Amino acid sequence: MKKRTMYLFCLSMIVIGFCVGYTFKNISRNISIDNLKKNSYWRSDPIIVNCMGGLIEEETIKKAIHYWAKKNEHVLFYQYDYQKSVCDKNRIDGFIVLKVDESLLADGSNVLARTKKYIVNDRILSVEISYKPGTYNYNLLLEHELGHAFGYDHKKIPGHIMHPHYDFMGSAFW
Q1: 137 or 17: which carries more pLDDT confidence?
Q2: Strands 41-42 and 95-100
Q3: Does the residue 174 lie in any domain?
Q4: What's phi and psi for 73, nearest 5 deg?
């Protein structure tokens, strides 16, 4: 009788352990999936155009594009040199435009850059990333703003690329 009781006890512990493990796996998977959810999408890969001239280093743009390519977010290509046909327009579908915004100095906030998306039915049509003067080459700032341009929201997780405060931002993305 004792063998049978011990056998049933061990079997029930295995079943309980499996259920707990399976539940934990799904909870952690859902947390990870939730962190990756996007609120909007591009119909096709966008084009990045630098409308700031030499203020932003080309390497800063390349590094940010590479960061997101590893996360399976892509741009068709980037144009480093100023393009009057794009930069002088209010907005053009299919483009992420990098600009300077002097008003970010005057508003007195700690905002380093701002991303404005034009969206219709969860589809991103165009994006404008505006920089506060002097912040163009801050480490990971363009990566963060491109995260918004690709449809990601802020995550209040220290070390996450999408953390809303620069001092708590890092390169992690999960």
Answers
A1: 137
A2: unpaired
A3: no
A4: -115, 125
- Domain count for the chain, please give it: 2
pLDDT at position 1: 59
Q: Give 118's contacts (C-beta < 8 A, 6+ positions apart).
A: 91, 93, 124, 125, 126, 127
Q: Using CA atoms, how far apart are residues 103 and 109, in angstroms rounded to an integer? A: 10
Identity of the amino acid at 123: R
Instruction: Determine the 3-state secondary structure of 17 from DSSP.
Output: helix
pTM: 0.79
CA distance linking residue 23 with residue 106, whole number of Å:
51
Kindly state whether residues 113 and 52 are assigned to the same domain. yes
Q: Rounded to an integer, what distance in angstroms lies between the CA atom of residue 117 and that of residue 3?
A: 67
pLDDT for 38-52, tens place per residue?
889 999 999 999 999
- Pair (82, 45) in one structural domain: yes
Domain carrying residue 164: 41-168
| Residue whose entry in the numeric block shows the structure tokens 């969206």 | 119
Instruction: Report yes or no on 173 lying in a domain.
Output: no
**In angstroms, what CA-CA distances link 174 with 29, 30, 103, 155?**
10, 11, 33, 10
- Asked whether residue 32 falls in the same domain as residue 45, the answer is no
Which tens digits make up the pLDDT trace of 130-140?
999 999 999 99
The mean pLDDT of 96-107, rounded to a whole number, is: 92
